[in-house]
## 1
Amino acid sequence: MTRREAIGHLAARLVPLYDPREARSIALAAAAGISGLTTTALLTDPGAELPAAERLEAAAERLAAGEPLQYVLGEAGFCGRPFVVRPGVLIPRPETEELVAWVLRGEVRSRRLLDVGTGSGCIAVSLALGLPGAELFAADLSDEALAVAAENARRLGARVTLRRADALHGLADAFPERFDAIVSNPPYVPESDRAAMHPNVRDHEPGMALFVPDDDRILFYRAIARAGRRLLLPGGRLYFEIYEHAAEETAQMLRQEGYSAVELREDLNGKPRMICSRLT
């Protein structure tokens, strides 16, 4: 099968799930990831045979069932680095790269940071590599996530101390250390948004990393902020990726919990998606 035929065949199978342009983009990325060829090579010599065409067919079955491309390839790019991802671990998003960039700029002199709800470890590993003079710690309740985070730290050469801990209960008890900053991208999607989400997210990514009750959509932020009063050094900072529709609610909660210098920032799409505050 030629490269053109393989990509066209896969794109056609994906059209029921995605618009034609996105379907072709996914098909091209899948062909590149599985064959080991660059997208440029695929496009400039479309009549050549595609290596590993049988593997692409197996991938097509998974993609046509709605499984995210990153799970099929076993990898997702984040901050310019390849991170291992598997079902059971949230796929890193570009918006979270903006949060990491903010922390990297603001914590140049920090000595110890904690990532709560680390998932694949993309935040903690990126910070460890970007702040080589700091100690990085990370917490997650999922054993599967901790295993993936540990694999990513090993593969990318980052020193991160991983511990199993629940963001909602006993987080401060799991960490006797004190931190200059805490970073977290916790669950924040209200359950009522579930039905409207794309099936490749809703039906395949871990619900425990995504959804919160409609009647308390900032419960993770509140719990981490309260734990932060014990975990942070005086003047320590708390960084969150947030739910855009709860930005002001989150900011007000932080002030009520004893934090000051609350700053909201918008992402590249102009949505309020990040917040930083300082322990008073």
## 2
Amino acid sequence: MSATAFSAALRGAISTSGLGLDRIQARLQERGISISVTALSYWQSGKRQPERQSSISAVRVLEEILDVPAGALLGLLPPPRPRGASSRRRLDEPAESGGVIAAFGFEEDASPALVGLHDLCDVDAEGRCVMVTAKAVLRAGTSGHDRWVLRYRRAEPHSRPPTLRASRNCTVGRTSFDSCEGLLLAELLFGHGLDNGETQLVEYSLSFEDTDSAAHQHFREFSSPVPEYLVEARFAGNTRPERSWQFSHPETGQPETRPLRVDNGNTVHAVAVDFGPGRFGIGWSRPG
């Protein structure tokens, strides 16, 4: 893709700001925006353009960081490029569209509702999230639910898929990973059908072997309101970040952040109640 008015304006704004791409990425991350340095480089060179809603939101924040008038960059974005009707396209669709469910060949209501989720992130001495242990509580809306489709998006696109392990009340079925989007889809199979209104507690873990690209944040995207989401980050040994914060990006409304305090167990946590659709998570700086 050749240079566009958007890429030229972004490149000029970055040059004028005097900020490096690493610093811009860090400032975006402080506001709960996950954009890799590679993506920023592609945007300013014209190799790629922001298209997903999360990328459009990032451009709005970029305008503030680079101190350019609101709309100065957004107004230059060309129309989204057309895509085919392949399974890759379905994976690119936002979670709220139901397209990711269709990618596995069944309807949205074939998966039970998420009513509670607890994520525990293990963070190494370099501040990188190396594993997430998750407990999910699911409720069947009709009889017969026998699986749940996990949708997990990595903070860093163009990364390798995490290693998924089922540890309680489920086994791993079909999986698919879109490396460009950093999106993992996986079936967690219960081994039996649920009755209408019955709940199922499942536990699983996600390990990240490519720690060079492991992010200093963790978040979940919810396509519908979830009654409770608890997320923790546990820091290795005596290391702790200089700063940590929670962030929320509701589908409608303004993004919000607030600082978090590291507790005596060397962890930080945040809780979202009746949150969604949108993105909620926590971030932390590199250990001092």
## 3
Amino acid sequence: MVVSVDAIRPVLDHVVVNVMGKLGEAAEQYTKLGFQLTERGHHTLGSSNNLAIFRDNYLELLGYLPGRETKRADLWTHPAGLTGLVFKSPDANLVYAALTERGVPVLEPISFARPVQLPGGAQDARFKVIRVSGEQVQNGRTFFCHHDTPELVYRPEWQLHRNGVTDVVEFVIASRDPARTASLYERMFGAPLLKPVSGGVSFTAGAATVLVLKPEAVAERYVGAALADPTGSDRMVALTFKVTSLDQPRAVFDAAKIAYRPFERGIVVDHAQAANVALGFTA
């Protein structure tokens, strides 16, 4: 079957922060940072999460409960921090066929669910994911997520945050060879995709821009707030969020005594205060 790569587009669905067995600690950190988190959810595959839902995408704090670390053990081999770049899927089978046609190593779609507690009772949020094979991505995962029940995720009452965040607008990967790292995404979505930027390359993914930058370019862009991997491996290290006004995150951080510093696009919080992820905020 011939499926055109034009059938799939790079649109950010969500980002995954791997917090392993520290879900409670990470949820407390992100709540102090002004995010409204959903109630703790539990996947049928064995992992657990809290979400911060935005207008067009969301952030997932992913981990496990005590005694469940052997469930989804493949996830916990990645270092704690930003480990998931997830794109929207228009159709799981179509995405699988398109990636296969492009020669991208990809696993067959899998289905799972997560009960969601609502005022009228619990309902199951259902998903299908299409995962690029693990060896293609260092220290993390890239996959597509198809929402069978988007109304159980993108709920208006969950999209309001004290820090004023409306969307993830930047996702940053540190790589000593940005062209090599980013070539996977051009294979996934077709050329021309990548644009040269200072210190690396970028591509547009819906409301967000994905940047693959040399470590020194990351350090300069995020004024030293991002994690530096001592091994020299690729590492997903930073996010930037759109806010309605920088006054909102400043007020939240000042009240919580969270240090922040200016950077080119607004203000940034150090990775040590956000589960190993540098968080930028821009108006």
